[in-house]
Amino acid sequence: MLGSLRVRLPLVFLAGIVLAGVITTAISIRLFQNFARDQALSKLNHEANGIAELYSASVNASYGNVTKKGKPADRLPPKFAAKNLEKATGDRIYLAGPKAGLFPGQTNQITGLRSLPAGTIDWLSGKSLTFEFTPPDTHRTFLAVANPVVSGTPAQLRNGVGTTIGAIIVATPKTDVRSRVNSLIERLAIAGILGLLIAALLAWYLSRRIVRPVLQLSEAVDAVAAGDYAVAVPQHAPGELGHLSERVGEMAHRLGEVEAMERNFLMSVSHELRTPLTAIRGHVSALLEGVAEDPEARDSSLQTVEAEAQRLERLVGDILDLAKLDTHRFTVTREEVDMARLLEQAFDRYRDEAQRRAIDYSHKAHARPVIVSDGDRVLQVVGNLLSNAFQATPDGGRISLELAQQNGTVHVAVADSGPGIPPAARERLFRPFVSNTGGGTGLGLAIAKELSTALGGRIELESEVGKGSRFELVLPV
User: Which of 70, 139, 231, 355 could covalently link to 223 via disulfide, CB atoms 3.0 to 4.6 Å apart?
Assistant: First the structure.
């Protein structure tokens, strides 16, 4: 079950989403932790700065205080509403200073502020500090910001030469910062669960949409492998699957055509082999039995045997050439070829058949070029074109062979008055085993096309249904 694509695909899809979600969540939590810490420190810094300024002003206002007896007091401790400020800010406020207190004979507790040991921070530096600490009255860790308390005359304070007498510390528990992160994690978890549910539904839908045509293609390929080429492939499949479906359909169609052509080829070859063999066997039997005692009858029988043997030789040669089509192993020689004489030789081969079938058979040479090529292969191509023309032309028809030269190329045209070739069938015509006449082995044109390419030329085709076809061999001089 787990090996099935319909299961593995959504699982991989979900695994990718989960992995991306975990990574994104981890980064988000880390960023939010930093953000929450920065926000908390910024808030504490503003509070510490404001409270330190208030306390400094209260301290400086205590200079010159007078007691109830009318005597001046030495720096009476300022009265400070610490508890009210803690309620307003939600944070703890501490005072750090010398062990003996800010003022001689006084303690920090009189101010209403919680005091911290003198060694908790370096309050004498007169700088704002950010730190973490554990207050004496609790076991929790606090995030804190300290701002200095400065004393002096107004002129000293204006010139920045006042005396640092302590520091106001505003602190908040780290657990408060963590609680914000925990709240975010809870919300991200809820969002993640909802996202996974939606992703699971989407994965299920996409897997069905993608896997269904894949399974149909798999069934179609299995059917093709079993020899059933009339298979139905998925229609309107998305994207690359649609392209693959079209190619699988074309492949099945081509395989069906190839199988049909192979069957036709075997039937044709069997027929082509049996016909001359039957004729040879009959004449040889007649000769052995003494039936053909007349010298003329004996010569006729021997000529028939020779002609049929040549026919068998040509058929075997075509089959051997067919075996070389795909490997391009044609042997091509280079020699001077008199094209006019070569075409006369090819023309003479079919003169008797033309007379026998009352075909108007003509030959025209508009030029007499001599080219460097393989004469035997050129003669084979022209012979195959003529053979195809005679197969396509009915008795009493018309076939012409023409030779011309222009622009450094030689043109050999074979035209017939056969039924013509529909446009849809022209591409398939040069494939092996395909015959437009229903006769022969269907190898002539395929071999002719391959040979013309090996000779550096090409075969062009012009045809009109009902009026005939014109095959033209074009070779370089």
Answer: 231
